[in-house]
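User: Can you recover a sequence for this backbone? Please restate the input before giving your answer.

Assistant: Of course. Working from this structure:
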């Protein structure tokens, strides 16, 4: 792993970042440090791609982040930002070791069964009023297709226990819509503006080189509002299946590039379920259903995941 500014500067000779300001940043509870590189917002993706290509040499995963403000002193801004604060980790892991290494080790022990239990618990928790959710989602289907299952058809399945959460409801309507669309092929335009990447205009931007080679482990260093316990394993799963890699981390927002899209409607729906249960604000703030989100994921090579207070 390259640990000095001079080593990174030598590596960047001949690139558009050759003269960029850099500084070392302390990370609490570990001897490892991060390296921050000054970049312009309009060049942030290009800068990330460059350092991602150099990962085999640096062994440091690059991540774009921002300071919530800007002055004329870039080094002071990034040092005062406290990117690696343990405050929110302490809320998630009371009385446990809050070092990045310990958080990563706990995430590595989070099994597929643990992940499924987490998602099931989230589905139960977010089923706040199933009756109103049924009415709302049936109306969404009716507006989109011109027809929908009857309320009676759905309530019978609720009574039988086949539908007990809003995810069960969404899955039933997804299967119904999939069959209806296959029987009567129609072009359904998608609204995807809710997934556009956030641009922190007017803020100090930095490319952070983290002391890890893995995208998903970034959430053990920088706190995300959606937490890390399940997010780290999910990001790892998405990397293994879709090649998804984290590019930007803005506190409540994660932005990823995805070289491999879901290959089927059902795979896209399952992915959408995972994203919405991990970060409900991704779709909730704009009233987008899980099945609509899944249809969007079939066509996108960038993801936007959002969870806020």
């Amino acid at each position: 792993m390259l640990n000095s500014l001079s080593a990174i500067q030598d590596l960047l000779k001949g690139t558009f970042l050759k003269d960029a300001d850099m500084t070392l940043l302390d990370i609490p509870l570990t001897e490892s440090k991060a390296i921050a590189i000054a970049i312009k917002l309009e060049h942030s993706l290009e800068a990330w791609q460059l350092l991602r290509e150099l990962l085999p040499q640096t062994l440091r995963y690059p991540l774009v982040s921002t300071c919530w403000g800007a002055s004329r002193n870039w080094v002071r801004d990034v040092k005062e930002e406290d990117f690696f604060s343990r405050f929110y980790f302490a809320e998630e892991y009371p009385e446990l070791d809050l070092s990045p290494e310990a958080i990563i080790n706990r995430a590595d022990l989070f099994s597929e069964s643990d992940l499924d239990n987490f998602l099931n618990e989230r589905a139960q928790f977010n089923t706040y009023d199933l009756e109103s959710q049924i009415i709302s989602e049936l109306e969404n289907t009716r507006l989109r297709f011109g027809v929908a299952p009857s309320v009676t058809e759905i309530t019978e399945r609720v009574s039988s226990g086949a539908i007990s959460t809003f995810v069960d409801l969404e899955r039933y309507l997804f299967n119904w819509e999939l069959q209806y669309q296959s029987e009567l092929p129609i072009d359904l335009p998608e609204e995807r503006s809710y997934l556009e990447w956030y641009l922190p205009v007017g803020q100090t931007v930095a490319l952070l080189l983290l002391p890890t080679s893995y995208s998903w482990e970034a959430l053990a260093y920088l706190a995300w509002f959606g937490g890390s316990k399940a997010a780290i394993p999910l990001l790892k799963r998405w990397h293994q299946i879709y090649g998804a890699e984290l590019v930007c981390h803005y506190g409540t927002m994660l932005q990823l590039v995805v070289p491999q899209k879901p290959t089927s409607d059902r795979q896209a729906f399952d992915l959408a379920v995972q994203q919405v249960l991990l970060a409900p604000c991704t779709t909730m703030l704009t009233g987008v259903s899980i099945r609509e989100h899944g249809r969007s994921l079939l066509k996108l090579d960038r993801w936007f995941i959002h969870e806020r207070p």
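That completes the design. The mean pLDDT is 95.
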